[in-house]
User: What shape does this take?
Amino acid sequence: MKIGELAKRSGLSAATIRFYESKGLITAVSRKANGYREYPLEAVAVLNIIANAQQTGFTLDEIRQVMPGNLSNWKHEELVGMLKKKVADIEAMELKLAQGKSQLQNMIKLIECKPEDMDCDDNANRILKEMGILKSG
Assistant: This one.
């Protein structure tokens, strides 16, 4: 199939497909006598795998490491190992995000608890002291 048909079937732009090809992620491409690229039907599945992997946080280099030349030749152990590592990375990121969220919520509470008679500068100092950023003095 030509690139336009592949773009339509995959939901990706022709430029994105060419980019993936230039990065070695799509390898089973032939050229016709007129120079047009001819893609096999499995290219749709490959592009879906690439797009889904990117959405879950894989880099193109990580995808290239485990992506087989054809879909019947997966590197099973490498793939499972990389997937487990990505799950661990996501869990670590979730923990950092939860900590950041908690800090922001705490800061919001501190800001909102400003005494009525306190101006903004004094409130900022109060918050920084409560957060341990400024020492009392």
